Write the structure tokens for this entry.
Amino acid sequence: MQKDDAAAPPLRKDWKYRLGLGLFIYSLVPICTIELVALLPLDTAEIVTLGAVYVASGELAFLAAVALLGKPFIQAVKDKIKGFFFSKKPLSPPKPIGKFRHGLGVALLLGSLAPYYAAIGMLLFAGPGDSDARTLLYLLLAGEALFVVSLFILGPEFWARLKRLFEWPGKERLTE
């Protein structure tokens, strides 16, 4: 018999929990403070490079936090967010998404790469001083926003399919 999500083990507040919680909190900082990078007395290329590394460090911290905190913490955060935005009545299982929604989500997912290439193009082909650091940072943030929105549009089934892409099929598939 399999355990359901509600019967997840309680969180143990050991060093993994504290480190994971710290990394989770830090992962929110770059997105909230990226505008401050544009105020540094650096040239445009340095600001964009620092901004990209800063945002990426937040993403890496989030992935490390998820790995350290595990499923019980993620489920607790999801429950808190759902409880804040939705009523307390039980939620029905997610409905499968339609063809249009899937196409829109995939288009946004692929389109989330465009702002990064636009920023690189501005740095490579614009004259010195022509590229505004804030414009380039906003392009980076637009790419992040498109990525997050696309994942919400694609829905929970997409996560399961994406996860299966990276799972090793095992012996049973090799013998077929």
